[in-house]
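User: Let's play a game. I give you a shape written as tokens, and you guess the letters that built it. Ready? Here's round one.
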């Protein structure tokens, strides 16, 4: 175990200390609160994880499953937040007109993890053929 208490030495069997007068630089594996992916910043001992964009790659797909795309987690999150804001604005307009609206799904972390691509014209055409 390295002095950080979080990581093991990755060198092959060797004499002497694992780290020669330097700090552990292995990636932090603590799960991020907002997405669950590992922090991945260089080891920061017991200090809180730095607020950095998650660079984990995730696959998004549309509702019907025809379109698939690999995105960086933080970019997918930003896209989802942008779409949620647009949808929220639309629902607020409906509320101002006196309509009842359901907004709980717009603000849950569970929904963020289920961010999807939008179906395109080809998806709609395939759906009509069914």
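Assistant: Ready! My guess for every position:
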């Amino acid at each position: 175990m390295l002095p950080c208490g979080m990581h093991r030495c990755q060198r092959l069997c060797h004499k002497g200390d694992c780290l020669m007068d330097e700090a552990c630089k292995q990636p932090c594996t603590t799960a991020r609160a907002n997405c669950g992916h590992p922090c991945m910043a260089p080891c920061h001992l017991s200090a809180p994880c730095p607020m950095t964009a998650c660079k984990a790659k995730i696959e998004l797909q549309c509702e019907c499953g025809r379109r698939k795309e690999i995105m960086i987690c933080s970019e997918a999150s930003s896209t989802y937040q942008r779409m949620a804001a647009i949808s929220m604005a639309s629902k607020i307009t409906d509320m101002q007109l006196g309509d009842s609206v359901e907004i709980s799904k717009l603000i849950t972390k569970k929904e963020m993890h289920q961010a999807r691509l939008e179906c395109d014209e080809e998806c709609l055409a395939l759906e009509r053929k069914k």
